[in-house]
Amino acid sequence: MEIERKFLVSSLPADLERYSFHMIEQAYLCTDPVVRVRREDEEYYMTYKGKGFLAREEYNLPLNKEAYEHLLPKADGNIISKKRYLIPIEGTALTIELDIFEGKFEGTVIAEVEFDSVEAANAFTAPDWFGADVTEDRRYSNSYMSRSKSL
Prior knowledge:
The protein is mainly beta. Helix content is 13%, strand content 48%.
């Protein structure tokens, strides 16, 4: 089960470069249900996601590079590229996944935080540099972006 909240970002942290990051490329074979393939650095996998925004089923299956490269051209729509910074939230076990999009969606920045429970997600107080909560706004789901001409 994936339980996460998404936020637009008002301003980037001044010390962003001190955090580790991953380069992500992903494409969608289907958006209902969501079936995507992803390259994260040099790891590859296929993901199934159920319906929902705040909480939904999620299953990851490992792929090798050859399988990923075979499936990538079969995807519909836009290939999503982003740099994901991992920013720990002081005093908690939570991590902000800060996605800075490249390519077609360059200029889009979204912060995601995953939780152990819906209650914890609902009780979360976002840092000052977060903007609007877009958890329930489908336009900011990567699967929607894969079919979109723009945000």
